[in-house]
């Protein structure tokens, strides 16, 4: 997988994504966890955007993330007896003695897994964590051909506060994509106010984009059965206007 999210991203993650992401997928994943009929593993648990609410609802959920900084932020939201429910681990080679009813990877987790061998190892690891008949659900973004070719010029996607009276801005630029590698370079700049003035932090990383039939072939090469690929969290079919792949796979019961 890519490098773990750095401390500057972990620090401001909740402030930014409460505006740019929350409400898109929260209830869909929380509903899947509630319906699972057994324990859930969340891959890429991050700062606990979904996890903390799942625990408040009394759901039996566990989480892993590659970033120690994100796990630290997540634990700060949990009761002390729940600290052990989240841990630093790489989903590509994760192992567990606990059989899960559901594994979920929200918000583009698989876009951080660039190598096809690692993608297959991740699917194998998830398969082995699930009990027979268990489900693996994840989402990816539908690539925009225009943006792949032209890129996305620098723009401010968040301008708000990280604390009372303290301004935070996030500036983002992306692409053009490396079409041969199916990689989009992304650069983020965080600018925030402290008592001693404005501070800045940078993060550059790469996102792997996948197409619909590539996802289908990847799952077909695994031990999973593909149940569905929808175009949004309301269960709509994929269309030319879809922006999300919502993928559900199942470990065969036999």
Search tags:
254 residues; alpha/beta; Rossmann fold; N-terminal domain of TfIIb; 2 domains; 7-stranded mixed β-sheet; 4-stranded antiparallel β-sheet; 7 helices; 26% helix; 35% strand; globular
How does this model look, in words?
The chain is α/β, with parallel strands linked by helices and 254 residues long. It folds into 2 domains: 7-141 and 211-250, Vaccinia Virus protein VP39 (Rossmann fold); 145-208, N-terminal domain of TfIIb (Single Sheet). Helices cover 26% and strands 35% of the residues. It is built from 7 helices and 11 strands. It has helices at 7-20, 26-35, 51-56, 68-75, 116-129, 145-150, 212-220; strands at residues 40-43, 61-65, 86-88, 100-105, 130-141, 152-163, 166-174, 183-194, 197-208, 225-230, 244-250. Strand 8 (183-194) and strand 9 (197-208) form a beta hairpin. The longest helix is centred in the first third of the chain and has 14 residues, at 7-20. It is globular. The two termini are 31 Å apart.
Give me a quick take on this structure.
With 254 residues, the protein is of the alpha/beta class. It folds into two domains: 7-141 and 211-250, Vaccinia Virus protein VP39 (Rossmann fold, 3-Layer(aba) Sandwich), CATH 3.40.50; 145-208, N-terminal domain of TfIIb.
